[in-house]
What we know:
The chain is of the alpha/beta class and 342 residues long. 53% of the residues lie in helices and 16% in strands.
Amino acid sequence: xxxxxxxxxxxxxxxxxxxxxxxxxxxxxxxxxxxxxxxxxxxxxxxxxxxxxxxxxxxxxxxxxxxxxxxxxxxxxxxxxxxxxxxxxxxxxxxxxxxxxxxxxxxxxxxxxxxxxxxxxxxxxxxxxxxxxxxxxxxxxxxxxxxxxxxxxxxxxxxxxxxxxxxxxxxxxxxxxxxxxxxxxxxxxxxxxxxxxxxxxxxxxxxxxxxxxxxxxxxxxxxxxxxxxxxxxxxxxxxxxxxxxxxxxxxxxxxxxxxxxxxxxxxxxxxxxxxxxxxxxxxxxxxxxxxxxxxxxxxxxxxxxxxxxxxxxxxxxxxxxxxxxxxxxxxxxxxxxxxxxx
Length: 342
């Protein structure tokens, strides 16, 4: 029998975190030394720029002679080391999260991101979520920074939640959410979208973000001998609260906020425990007018956010330029089978 209790989810998250931590620490030390080494080599290359690329070519050749079995010292990789040292100072590498990323992650960030602050933001999310290189690539492709860090968000979190939960909740919200594993079909209804999100729950949770644990779909609540069903119910370990998600395959309407307020009151009364924070609601709509949403949420005393969602055949205009070209796809295939040192 499944345990639907927030206390259990906290215990589960703690055990998982301990396992991940033990596995991670086994390789972190070696990786950290490699990153610091590459940064230092990059500084050496910068300091000897008078020879131009001849210096890099000679250095790569002579390292290969001295260390014939060593990988990672090709001219191309040495140029990445130079770029790495140009971008980051010692105080940004040695004591910080940048030393926790693999070199493959760093190369990807240097290739795809021009702004150092945004690069550091993606690095932080990578460490926080344990993203592989491929997942990081996809997050950059789908402009996670624009959808989460700087997106225009329609919420009443600041008015209804205490610090620091209000800030964490706002940071967690995205607009739009991209469910590219759900096919947009003519006449598709909310229940079908919900079923596909549940069928692909790992991908759904990855898009929702850090700390989400799935509790149930069509979650039953009995109130005054009447039956009510929540589309999707999660518990967020980072926010330490239940999260109610309702899906609307139409444009946001003000009355949706009232129904969500009802659900949040019920969950707070029936499921919320003493140590839990107030339950949060997220309304996912096909379209959303920010001002309409803000008016609808203004005098509601439960924390609600309103965001759009996109399915697989709909590519928002702001994402079009980020989609890989044929050349990009070919390069990714080549990179997948490429020796890391190249």
